[in-house]
Design brief:
The chain has 202 residues and is an alpha+beta fold. 28% of the residues lie in helices and 34% in strands. Strands 1, 2, 3, 4, 5, 6, 7, 8 and 9 form a nine-stranded antiparallel β-sheet that branches. It starts with 12 loop residues before the first helix and ends with a strand. The structure holds flavin mononucleotide. Flavin mononucleotide binds next to strand 2, strand 4 and helix 2.
């Protein structure tokens, strides 16, 4: 195998993640920031759904959602989560394991204020994961909220905000022919510790 096909191990996983994410941003045609978020509630049943990662830095990976949704109830019961980015065009994935905590109200406010107005209305209109009698009910809620906020700044709903995933394990996976993939795992027991690295079999 040629040297250039190997994952080059950086000092910390965020350096490597930022290189891969920049490549995905250029080469992945749709939603390079899409990731699968896996959660488990108190019953131990895992559930997974796609989410958009809205920011990341050395403190972790941030996503926004309705904090009364099914996932948010699970997160309150169990703060351990998995994330998986799969960049099909690059034949690469990054698996992340960590714990979530809510981002500060100020951070959620700032991100909410940057969203398009229709998305802000949508955040008020949607009682995410709750029963909806008809599509019309949602459309009516949108219409009445649009009228209510006409000409006004739309505040962030109290039930809507961000979560940050603080990772303790990040695996970089690069696909190769004949299943001879390249895998490198970064791990640390606590956020204060240095990352260790380990190459593992495909
Ligand atoms: C590509 C993609 C990105 C998504 N991004 C988000 C997101 O950032 N936040 C969100 O609440 N839901 C997002 N969704 C919808 C979720 O997959 C999910 O349906 C919703 O959050 C409700 O999940 P829950 O009932 O498990 O709480 C996205 C769906 C797709 C397909």
């Amino acid at each position: 195998m040629q040297e250039s096909f190997e994952i080059v191990v950086a000092d910390d996983p965020f350096t490597l993640f930022s290189v891969w994410f920049a490549e995905a941003t250029t080469l992945e045609p749709a939603d390079p920031n899409a990731m699968v978020l896996a959660t488990t509630g108190s019953d131990g049943q895992p559930t997974a759904r796609a989410m958009l990662m809205k920011s990341y830095d050395r403190d972790g990976f941030v996503f926004y959602t309705n904090q009364e949704s099914r996932k948010s109830h699970q997160l309150r019961a169990n703060d351990k989560v998995g994330l998986c980015f799969y960049w099909k065009s690059l034949y690469r994935q990054v698996h992340i394991e960590g714990t979530v905590s809510p981002v500060s109200p100020a951070e959620s406010d700032e991100y909410f204020a940057s969203r398009p107005r229709q998305s802000q209305i949508g955040a008020w209109a949607s009682q995410q994961s709750r029963p909806l009698s008809s599509r019309k009910e949602l459309e009516d809620r949108i219409q009445s909220l649009t009228a209510q906020y006409e000409g006004k700044v739309i505040p962030r709903p109290p039930h809507w905000g961000g979560y940050r995933v603080t990772p303790h394990r990040i695996e970089f996976w690069r696909g190769h022919e004949f299943r001879l993939h390249d895998r490198v795992v970064y791990a640390r027991a606590t956020p204060q510790e240095k990352w260790t690295t380990q190459r593992i079999y495909p």
